[in-house]
Amino acid sequence: TAMTFAKRQGRNHLHFFKRSEENSQRVDVHLRNHFQQAIDNEKLALYYQPIIDLQSGAIVGAEALMRWQLDDGSFIPPDEFIPMAEATGQIIPASEWAIEQACQDLKLLLEKREHMSVSVNLSALQFSRANFFEQIIETIKTHKLSNENLELELTESILMDDSNHAIKLIERFRNAGVAMSIDDFGTGFSSLSYLKKLPVNKLKIDRAFIQDIVSKSSDEAIVRGILAMARQLNMDVVAEGIETAEQAIRLTELGCGYGQGYYFAKPKPLTELLKDLD
Ligand code: C2E
Ligand code: MG
Ligand code: MG
Ligand code: MG
């Protein structure tokens, strides 16, 4: 069985999780039960981070990011509960809720903007489930949305279990008009060779390459390379984690189409995103 790591935020040790049931006692049982209660009592929320057209400055979409808020108002960060939920399988019901919620929210966003997309993060576990494609398409239909308004974000880990299955599934989604992007691009280990085989239409360059793009010429060179390659492959590019005006300007000069980051906006509740669109 595949091993997944989870790095607990703010601590230096790694926890090892196995996906199989017999090893699930390695998971922090308290956290797992607590998360189950959050799913059951609808204590999860989606926050939205705007995605910006770097040329025009307009909001063209938003990424849905899961939030788990405790009764005292504090948040447990996704980096802490998502890997745990992937290890226990709880990511499945949590994500079903998230896709449903995202479609509901998208409906409201589209009342303000005709062209607006919402992107949802997927985990490898969902991708290997039977009927996953049908389920997503059905949810889109139920909410009277068009497939073009939903975007699914994948990480390279999706390809690790069964890449043939993953490629076929990505193809089905693309043929149906659903946008597919590779998240955290550049942080995986086989970035270039598999990209050719992947029918995705967008790359999201990881924050690690954006952070020092102004001061480190090697990082700028990497981003230039990714942009040139994406152009050849007809893919859109989003730069993640833009925190300064200088980074935004440099990326625009380099021809990067889209950006996302604290410089533009932090993830926020739907009501606030709706106000941004007024
Ligand atoms: P991600 O999909 O790469 O999401 C981007 C993360 O970067 C978000 O963290 C966002 O708040 C953060 N970020 C955005 N702009 C900046 C910036 O300018 N500076 C810095 N330092 N950070 C920035 P968040 O919300 O904590 O999410 C962390 C990860 O958790 C996500 O990374 C994604 O992998 C996972 N995740 C979140 N929601 C879901 C979900 O619904 N399903 C699944 N499967 N994974 C999720
Ligand atoms: Mg993402
Ligand atoms: Mg990302
Ligand atoms: Mg990330």
Brief write-up:
The chain is α/β, with parallel strands linked by helices and 278 residues long. The protein is built from twelve helices and eleven strands. Residues 28-278 form the EAL domain.
Notes on the protein architecture:
By secondary structure, the protein is α/β, with parallel strands linked by helices. Helix content is 42%, strand content 22%. The protein is built from 12 helices and 11 strands. The strands form 2 sheets. It has an 8-stranded mixed barrel, surrounded by 5 helices. The radius of gyration is 19 Å and the shape is globular. Residues 1-25 have low confidence and may be disordered. Bound molecules: ligand C2E and magnesium ion (3 copies). Ligand C2E binds at residues 49, 65-66, 77-79, 82, 91, 95, 98, 121-123, 153, 183-184, 207, 241-243, 260-262, 267.
Helix content: 40-55%
Got a strand count?
11
What oligomeric state best describes the polypeptide chains here? single chain
Largest sheet: 8 strands, mixed, barrel
Distance between the termini: 49 Å
Radius of gyration, whole Å = 19 Å
Mean pLDDT: 89
Bound molecules: ligand C2E, magnesium ion
Strand content: 15-25%
| Low confidence ranges | 1-25
H/E series, N to C?
EEHEEEHHEHHEHHEHEHHEHEH
Instruction: Specify the number of helices.
Output: 12
Keywords: Membrane, Transmembrane, Transmembrane helix
Domain EAL: 28-278
